[in-house]
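Data deposition worksheet. Section B asks for the primary sequence of the deposited chain exactly as it was used as input, without tags or linkers unless they were present during the calculation. Section C holds the resulting structure in token form. Section D is free text for depositor observations; keep each observation to a single sentence. Incomplete worksheets are returned to the depositor.
Section A, Depositor: J.P.
Section B:
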Amino acid sequence: MGGNEQGTSAPSAWIELPGFTWEGLRGEGTRTLRLAKGQTLFSQGDAVHHVYVVEQGRVRLVLMSAAGHEKHMAIVGTHGMVGECSAFLDGKHSVTAVASSDVVLRQVEREQLLACLGRDATCLRQVLWLGNVKLRILANQNLLLSHASAAQRVAYHLVQLAETYGEEVADGIALRISFTHQEMANLTGLSRVMTSNVLIQLHEDGLLDKVGSHCVIHDIQGLRQRTISL
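Section C:
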């Protein structure tokens, strides 16, 4: 199954990167920032003064339409970075970042990131890799929201979680990261009730067990079949 980095062609929209250290972004110009669940880190259209490395917890990235409609793009967790995609363009955030849980972040000045990219090849590779992953997630999200049924959307994200973070156990594949029904609902564009109903049906069909935020997939091939028309 997956390693520390998301290596699949269709990476999970939950981005966890324990292997990324961001050593070049420590020291002067950084500080620790703590947000409670539900607090906004930055809003779409805000000027980019800082980027943020997630030390603990999760941050969800939300795209807002002019009419106020929300599309949830990705959930960034351990050692992921948010805000970097807008640091190179017009200097304005392209999405809104909201704490999906209580979160601890390292705040890095935009200029410090840009300077680090010029001198630190590891930092440059990590930022480029992360940008490519987010682009693939965005493309896949567009396809799902345009063409997939509720059950297909949930099944798709479960398959990607298994391929990226799955660990083989006696009765199937255990996901090494947890997710909540609300996070799944946000990413699939479904209500929490509908998302829960889909997960209950998958459990009743013998495809998975979910206790709290932890999940074991018993039949990955059966789950893939639920996405077959995508």
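Section D:
The chain has a mean pLDDT of 90.
The radius of gyration is 18 Å.
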